[in-house]
Amino acid sequence: MDEQGLPTGPFEDVTLLSGGTQNVLIRFRRGGEGYVLRRGPQHLRSRTNDVLRREARVLSALDGTDVPAPRVLAACPDESVMNGAVFYLMTPVEGFNATVSLPEPHASDPQMQREMGLNAARALSALGAVDHAAAGLTGFGKPEGFLERQVGRWMSELESYNSLDGYPGPDIPGLDKVATWLDDNRPVTWRPGIMHGDYHLANLMYSFDGPQVAAIVDWEMCTIGDPLLDLGWLLATWPEPGDASTSLAGPLGDGGALPATADLVTAYAERAGAIAGRDLSAITWYAVLACFKLGIVLEGTHARAFAGKASKETGDLLHGITLGLFRRAQAFIAS
């Protein structure tokens, strides 16, 4: 911090926001300013440092845009400084996660809850409007052939689970039907841009004093791809009454005041710059792809549970969500 010219003095109000097996977040104050330090877990995974470097690069590129996201103040890609860990300092986010808690006035105001939902789509449209090349992210991802390789990539991932001891293979009704439909209906043209990669309500922080998105967080999956897949991901994970995935949306999902998925698409489309060169008439395809991809990702934990590498309870829960996602994919196709 001293080398970066940041305020000096003792470290104060040091608070661990998360840690353990997850990336570590520590909030503190120094020289009258607030900071959050982000680094990998104590026991680093093989790709942790590369992921942190990518996060810092994208968040730095978003500085100067109107995308609600933490701002990087200083990044250290050098692993030797902190015992092998890459880390960066960012601005604190004053907000709350609505899938964990819903404070007042949000909890008793259905109209505010509806606006929170619409603002999830609007915040995403702000990200979709960013020119990744102008932001310095040329070469950050591999957008060439991005859509074409998705089905094969994730079917191969599913096939790889068969190597886990005890896993009987995927029992996912509609799997082949959905995969075939995706291959047969792939959009012909699309425009590359910055993707968050895991865009859903649990990765949003909301303002304490209104329905605004304070920050999009957890950028571990960010890349350059087709930003409409982020919108599809939001639709795929959107709380629907009676759906197993609704449990993941917590109190905001339980409130029953969130807008319909069609309203999310309309809210996204309100920002003309976000959709130039992008065909929102194909949004059903992106929603189906998101259901397909996320369902296969979650099935991985189900498979690992058979091999004793995850609890049976968790494996069964996520398998149930996978089945729900494929039911939703087929409902999207039917519609």
CATH architectural label of the largest domain: Alpha-Beta Complex
The portion of residues assigned to helices is: 25-40%
Strand line-up of the largest beta sheet: 1-2-3-5-4
Please state roughly what percent of the residues sit in beta strands, choosing from under 5%, 5-15%, 15-25%, 25-35%, 35-45% or over 45%. 5-15%
**What is the ordering of alpha helices and beta strands?**
EEEHEEHHHEEEEHHHHHH
Detailed description of the structure:
InterPro entries: ACAD10_11_N, AGP_Transferase, Aminoglycoside_PTrfase, Kinase-like_dom_sf. It comes from Actinomadura rudentiformis. This protein has about 325 residues and is an alpha+beta fold. It has ten helices and nine strands. It has two domains: about 10-90, Phosphorylase Kinase, domain 1, CATH 3.30.200.20; about 105-335, Alpha-Beta Complex (Aminoglycoside 3'-phosphotransferase, Chain: A, domain 2). It is about 40% helix and about 15% strand. The strands form three sheets. The protein has a five-stranded antiparallel β-sheet, covered by helices on one side. A two-stranded antiparallel sheet has the order 6-9. A two-stranded antiparallel ribbon has the order 7-8. β1 (about 10-20) and β2 form a beta hairpin. α3 runs parallel beside α9. The chain is globular, with a radius of gyration of 20 Å.
Write the layout of secondary structure elements.
Blueprint: E1 12-18, E2 24-30, E3 33-39, H1 48-61, E4 72-76, E5 87-90, H2 110-128, H3 150-160, H4 175-184, E6 193-195, E7 204-206, E8 213-216, E9 223-225, H5 228-236, H6 250-254, H7 261-269, H8 272-275, H9 283-306, H10 312-334
Antiparallel strand pairs: 1-2, 2-3, 3-5, 4-5, 6-9, 7-8
Helix pairs in contact: 2-7, 3-9, 4-9, 4-10, 5-9, 9-10
